[in-house]
Amino acid sequence: MGYWYLAIAIVAEVMATLALKASNGFSESTPSTICVIGYAVAFYFLSLVLKTVPVGIAYAIWAGMGIVLIASISAVIYKQLPDLAAVVGMLLILAGVMVINVFSKTVSH
Description:
Order of helices and strands: HHHH
Largest sheet: none
Strand content: under 5%
C-alpha cells in the first residue's frame, strides 16, 4: 500500500502547488482552499508512506515526480516552457528515480 499512498501524496501535492500559483498570493478563495487541503492530504498520505517505505526513498520519489509533473503541467496551463537545460535536468531526475526503484536494495516492492 505504501506506493499507492505515495502516488496519492504526489497527485495531491501537484494539485496543491498548481492551486498555489492560481491563488494569487492567497487572494483567491477557491484556489487557496484547494491548496491548503491538497497539502494536508499530501502530507497525511506521505506520513502513511513512511510506515513502510524508507524516508529517503519516499522523499526522492515524491520530490522528483512532483518536480517533473508540476513543470510539465505548468508548461501546458501557464505556458511556462522549460528550456533545454531544465528538460535535461528533469530527465536526469526521472532517471534517478528509476535507478532507485530498479537497483536500490533499500526499496521494498
